[in-house]
């Protein structure tokens, strides 16, 4: 089987004629790709491969309609034409008997014809980002449909006929104006993934609690004030409830025995119910930006791997914190913590530990038992010194004492006191909200020779490429990518003073600027948030390098210039 893909760069009629040579007509070509070709109409020459053609990609062009010649492609199984100007589907679409997947997102469709119901083999239908305003009844006759995407279609209700989709596995109706679901929604017994984020729900729909196979639920960015009984969702593994107005959680949440990831950021939660620690399978818990005043005393019973509780009102951590033996990532920035329990040192698998913007006056000596610790952020506290036991953390590659620190680990000095040996630095003692400046001497601040060349760092980032794409798996960790000014307080900061051995990413002799990056700053694109660092006296780099960061991100690219 041969798959032929023409060039993706500005194909015009002449190029098309060169491609469709007579001697190619006899080849068993099963897929043609015409994405980003500035086509205004479907090439007629496609019919030459009608006998074997199974997939046709016409995304990102200037198409306004489909050519009737497509009917000759009787074996076509996948048709993708997203990001065009198509305003209607022809009635003859009923001729695609073998069509399995139809993608028409980001067009100008106003309605779906009734003839679509004759495509009885259709399994995937994506018509997101179209001004539909209503769901056509023809969709509910597609009994073999498994994946339906209706994101951002100006919908304000879902018809009761949706229960006819007896084979449905995935339903996406994100970014609409939904407030209620029909009772028949409870009959979607096969559905495994639902995305209802970005709507206008004020109450959690009761019909949702009767979906036995539901494994992934997105319900973020609504107007929920409380969470009702959801204990019947026994198969639920992923639950996103961030960016709502939830003030309390129902006791039944502790019965979600299969739950592995729970996101509750940006709500109004003050306390967690006693049953919360019964979530024994929970691995990732995000409670950022709430009003938490305390964590459960038996928190150590859980099997958490990642815990994030930034921007709350916590004054202490429970004594059972050290029993979280599997915990690897812990974020508790921007709270009111006055001390850390000595049991912290029992979290032997800890890799990242951040407690910046708190009221800490000391760190426990037990931190030295975290032999795998790589990142420790204690910036913006009130620490007079550091415990000498930190020298046991041989894997430590970033120690942040202030937010405008130019290198990950500054030179530390050991001093003998009546209470024992301690570690000090010119950044200590800390002064709470004040951020100390780097010294003017490059040899003192960086421990480097004064004759080093200067180099400018910048990030490769474009706001034009930061738009959200559906389905939402492409951006599970957050929402829209891009720079946020407040994000610099929480983003991971890491820059190295010598060429690292990481895989090379970037281009030498390239400099990319951003309006937030002045001449004396350096940025790192990480988890949709920037990091602004005082570059100070920069170091010479002989080749392109990838600067490692505490949070791994596939889009980090930093370039250096000699």
What features would you highlight for this structure?
562 residues; mainly beta; 17-stranded parallel β-sheet; three-stranded antiparallel β-sheet; disordered N terminus; disordered C terminus
Walk me through the structure.
The protein is mainly beta and 562 residues long. The protein has two helices and 24 strands. The protein has helices at 13-19, 442-446, and strands spanning 31-33, 55-57, 78-80, 101-103, 124-126, 147-149, 170-172, 193-195, 216-218, 238-240, 261-263, 284-286, 306-308, 329-331, 352-354, 375-377, 386-387, 398-400, 413-417, 420-424, 456-459, 521-523, 532-534, 558-561. The strands form four sheets. The protein has a 17-stranded parallel beta sheet, with no helix packed on it. A hairpin with an 8-residue loop joins strand 22 (521-523) and strand 23 (532-534). The two termini are 49 Å apart. The relative contact order is 0.05.
